[in-house]
Amino acid sequence: MDSILLPSEIETYIDTMKPQKMKDLGTIHWFDWHHRLQKLNQEALIEASLLKEEHVKETLVTFGKLNILTHEAILINIWKYKVLPILTSLEPCPESTFIVYSILYHEAVCVALLELVLYHPNCCEALEDTAGDLLEYATSNVSQLLSVKSTEPGRNESASEEISRQKNNLTFDIGIRSLSITRYICENLESLPVSIRSKIYTEYDIPVLFTEIMLAKPWAKDGKLYSGGVWKDWDNEQLGQCEAQVWLTLRQLLLDPECQSYYSLTENRRKQLAKLLPLMKPILLDQLSPLMELNHWLCRMNMMEQNAAPPKALLIEAILEIKDSILKETGGKWRKMATNQLPTVFTTDKSLLTNIATKLSESYNTELLEKFGAESQTKCIKCDKEAIQRCSHCHKAWYCSRTCQIDHWTEHKPHCLA
Fold first, then answer.
1. Which residues form the MYND-type domain (predicted)?
2. 151 near 168, Cβ under 8 Å?
3. Euclidean distance between CA atoms 326 and 21, whole angstroms
4. Long-range contacts formed by 253-261: CB under 8 A, 24+ apart
């Protein structure tokens, strides 16, 4: 199967995208929208996996709909922390958790699609003012990786325990994907509002946040590595995609010529950043050679005797339009909203649930996702290990280390320069 949507369907789905309202979550109308978004996500995954023309990505940019994806992710995130706890307190033992999971999963679908398309610089540029909302959302989810863990279902799990586990597992996956989204934003600061750079260095202090993430390594546990949404066996040496994203983000920010203008190296920041040095072992530098420059920068920073000059003041402050509009629309009446949603979210109408499940059976095509999810995990063209960097000239050949790239150059050269 090379495609699941026709170009005309892609354009229709994207052209009709509209911001949803929190009060409509879980309704039949909302499930129609959820179904379409999942289909778009699957199509985008197939296009990226097969190196086809990325029609979903281009159409999202052409129709200016990336802000809708950001809105949807933030909407569900707010609902997850403001409304869902009240729902579970009103109905601690629901008969079905299917609709709750679908709403939570909707956020993960939005983030997965954003992660896919924001790899391309023109998509980051298309974010425009909503980049501030997405950056705030992504960094908040990244920070969740310091406390939220991915767990397996327990024995005799109650409905409330099942909801809590599903929420945490999806939050963990969203946090992992937010590492990539943050990196893409950081790599395209020149095309984004000037206030974004100040938020990165001062308000969110992403260099220190990502240092804490690197020290915690939430993507690794018990000899396994989290990759592509699943835990895989790991040799404790091979550099995974998650860790590579963190390192490349740190390199981008700390080596940015504008860094010293915005980022004051206080004593506390220097102490935190210095903790990265013991992690930069030869095997890491061999697999991700651009980190050699970061290693030199950290060594020089560690020898500094004085703090750097304070950063320049920010003259223009960005407003989080999406988040503010959602909060204004709901008016903070979370209990009233939960009470109104209770019959819908925890419905006992088996006929309705069956109809919804049937409608989504195609959207939740796990076999398709696993197939193309596995194919999208890039492999080193030389040794077939998981790749973490690609040829900077042709952007097509992937490698696990600089050694493999050098060894493969003679074979790759004719294709690269063609």
1. 380-416
2. yes
3. 8
4. 253/186, 253/200, 253/201, 253/206, 253/207, 254/207, 254/294, 254/297, 254/298, 255/293, 255/294, 255/297, 256/189, 258/189, 258/197, 259/201, 260/308, 260/309, 261/311, 261/312
Query: Residue 365 and residue 415: Cα distance in Å, rounded?
Result: 36
Query: Tokens 């988040």 label which residue?
Result: 323
What's 152's DSSP letter?
P
Instruction: State if pTM tops 0.90.
Output: no
pLDDT band at 102 (very low <50, low <70, confident <90, very high): very high
Q: How far is CA 378 from the centre of its chain?
A: 17
Mean pLDDT of the chain: 88
> Residue 216 is which amino acid?
A
Joined tokens for residue 61:
């940019």
Q: What residue has token string 């503010």?
A: 324
**pLDDT cut 90: percent of the chain above it:** 63
Contact 337, 83 (CB under 8 A): yes
Whole-Å CA distances, 12 to 1, 59, 109, 304: 21, 10, 19, 57
Distance CA 273, CA 265 (A): 10
Pairing of strands 224-227, 398-399: unpaired
